[in-house]
Amino acid sequence: xxxxxxxxxxxxxxxxxxxxxxxxxxxxxxxxxxxxxxxxxxxxxxxxxxxxxxxxxxxxxxxxxxxxxxxxxxxxxxxxxxxxxxxxxxxxxxxxxxxxxxxxxxxxxxxxxxxxxxxxxxxxxxxxxxxxxxxxxxxxxxxxxxxxxxxxxxxxxxxxxxxxxxxxxxxxxxxxxxxxxxxxxxxxxxxxxxxxxxxxxxxxxxxxxxxxxxxxxxxxxxxxxxxxxxxxxxxxxxxxxxxxxxxxxxxxxxxxxxxxxxxxxxxxxxxxxxxxxxxxxxxxxxxxxxxxxxxxxxxxxxxxxxxxxxxxxxxxxxxxxxxxxxxxxxxxxxxxxxxxxxxxxxxxxxxxxxxxxxxxxxxxxxxxxxxxxxxxxxxxxxxxxxxxxxxxxxxxxxxxxxxxxxxxxxxxxxxxxxxxxxxxxxxxxxxxxxxxxxxxxxxxxxxxxxxxxxxxxxxxxxxx
Length: 464
Ligand code: BG6
What we know:
This protein is an alpha/beta fold. The protein has a single domain (12-463), classed as Glycosidases (TIM Barrel), CATH 3.20.20.80. It is built from 15 helices and 21 strands. The protein has helices at residues 19-22, 35-42, 59-72, 84-87, 97-112, 128-131, 139-156, 170-177, 189-213, 236-259, 264-272, 283-289, 345-357, 387-405, 448-459; strands spanning 4-6, 12-16, 77-81, 116-120, 162-167, 219-225, 229-231, 294-298, 303-306, 325-326, 334-335, 340-341, 363-367, 372-373, 379-380, 383-384, 410-415, 430-431, 435-437, 444-446, 461-463. The strands form 7 sheets. It has an 8-stranded parallel beta barrel with strand order 2-3-4-5-6-8-13-17, surrounded by 4 helices. The structure holds 6-O-phosphono-beta-D-glucopyranose. 6-O-phosphono-beta-D-glucopyranose binds at residues 18, 21, 167-168, 225, 298, 338, 367, 371, 416, 423, 426, 430.
């Protein structure tokens, strides 16, 4: 049966990206080094095909034509981030005026094209100088971040109304300090927890400053990568495993951001394993009084877990996986390029949970998308015929639509991403864009999905 999926008036249609993944120009116009610029210099072989963030999709030079393309494919909003090390090359101190000009011009260009800028302050790219003094483990860096946030509100708050403290703040903690996948490539659960905790404090402090700054009609939020966590069965051991995975991967940031308090169950668990972070007396009140106004939900895949098959080696470093095993559900559908399950209903389950357990906070889908390797396979008459991406978006949007019908407070949908962009470690292996980028020439070509997205946005929905 054919059905029309109409979305609420004023729904945000657009996409998301980040400074380190699209700007390039990593050594130009006074930009300082971020940890990724540094890591790439040190170990280029760790990035897919040895491609680093130095050129990326060259948005720094091509933003004007790119913003026009965004408009052409139906964007009414777009999220990117400010590069901290471009704006304040040493992380603290001197502001780089060329960066101020660039961001002001970029923001003005978006607004002139009817695209609302959603501005994120931090997308994994810690200024190198601050990493040298301990990065997020050091409270001085928390203060430097708050000063950076204040600078951004002052410089751009007259134009940008939608602000975000962090994209996926759990990622620098666990990828950088637990799984070794991001710089500084450490494997130490206790340190990861300190990083996560300090990030939560940094967020609360930035929100406090934001409120003091009183940006007219301004909103501040956080973008979290959330996972519906499904136990293998209803057996109490499987259910317990899922609860613990949920504590680590969702509630760790969701509870302090939205409810203004750390999950007590998580605190108890960390205490039991002697993993509690160093805190300050005043943090509790600060976190309580500085919750987010809006939540961005990045959804790619669920987590499926089961009780552990074997007891963990007591001599091995403690990891979240001491408490559960991942479960490969027979028949699960995979995006094999990325190794991620595709499960559209997960987006609905998440949104319903936010409604039922998190006060139906104003939210939007801030990332969802499909990265495909060797996408030139689908090139026909000069354009990439990515019907799979159109299907992927439609199938997720049907569930978002159902969630809205059932009262969830969802304001928009941002795809990852506008044009193919650089990815941490995977570089340009998997292409996510509505617009393809030829890395040799930097030529942009709208994909079939880009044309479809334009219709989606113009019709504020689709028929299927
Ligand atoms: C999100 C991040 O988790 O996923 C992006 O916010 C990232 O930075 C995106 O690029 C897709 O993941 P990946 O690893 O395939 O680039």
